[in-house]
Amino acid sequence: xxxxxxxxxxxGYDGVQTLDLTGPLDAFGAANQAQPHAYAMLVLxxxxxxxxxxxxxxxxxxxxxxxxxxxxxxxxxxxxxLRRGDLADRVATAIVDRADTLRRIVSVCTGIYGLAxxxxxxxxxxxxHWYHARDVAARFPAIRLDPxxxxxxxxxxxxxxxxxxxxxxxxxxxxxxxGAGLAVAVARELVVYLxxxxxxxxxxxxxxxxxxxxxxxxDLAGWMLAHLDGDLSVEALADRVALSPRQFGRAFQAxxxxxxxxxxxxxxxxxxxxxxxxxxxxxxxxxxxxxYASDDSFCRAFDRxxxxxxxxxxxxxxxxxxxxxxxxx
Length: 329
Hints:
By secondary structure, the chain is α/β, with parallel strands linked by helices.
C-alpha cells in the first residue's frame, strides 16, 4: 500500500446493528493508534441524515454515501433496518454506482441484504449470520452461500457472519493492508483472539445442540461435555433422560437430524479442535481427552470431519504467541 491513509467508508442507517458499525470502526481506530495515519474512516448514511441504531444510539454521519469522497473500501453494516422496506434497494443502487471505484466491498452480518441485490455476489462464495442464512439463500440463489464460515473473501468482495465476526474480518483486512504485526497490535489492544480463521464455524456443536434442545434434552449437552472421555453410548444417554434406548434414538434424531452416535462424534471432534489450538498437549492426549481410545482412529475421524489432520489444523489455527514482556509497549 501507499503511504497515504486508506480511506474506509462505513455505511449505517436507521436500525443498524451497533457493533456491526462500531466494531470495525474501533478496529481501524486502534490500527491508527499503533500506526498513525494507517486509515481514514468515514461514517456514511444513505442520505447523509443522522440515524439511530437498533440499540438506540444516535449517530451523525460524515456524509451521504453518494456524496462521499473517493473510498478504498466500503463496509455495509448489518441490522434490521436493512431487512425492511426499500432501504436495501436504495443501498444496492448506491453500491453499484460506486462499485467500479472501490478496491474492496464488504458486508458485515446482514449487510449482505444491501450487497446481494446488486448482483455483484452472483456466482461468488459468501456468508452471513447463521440465523438469516436460509432466507438469504432463498432470496439470492445465485450466491454460493456458506452459512457456517466466520468470514469469506472472494475476489474484492468480503462477507462476514454476525457482530463479533466483524472484528475478525477487520483484523484480516488490517493484516492484508499493513501486515501481521499491526493486526497483532490491534488484536492485543482490543483483547480479542487474533487468528480466528474465516473458515472456522460460526458457533460450536454444544451451542448448536442447546439451541435446538427441548426441555427433556436441556441439560444433556453440559453432561456430555463433562464426560467426553466416558460412556456416551445410546444406552448411557437414554438413561440420563429416562427414555428407553429406542425411544431416545428416535427422539434425538427427530430433533437434531443425526443419530446420537454421529452427534457424539461431532461433539468430541469439536472439543478436540479447541484443545488443539488452546494447549500444547500431544495428539495422543487430545485424542484420549476427547474420548478416543486410539489416536489413529481419532486422526482418521478428525481428517474426515475437518479436511486436514489434527497436526495441520493446529499449525493453521493456533494463535500467534504473545510477545516477550520486554517487547511489550
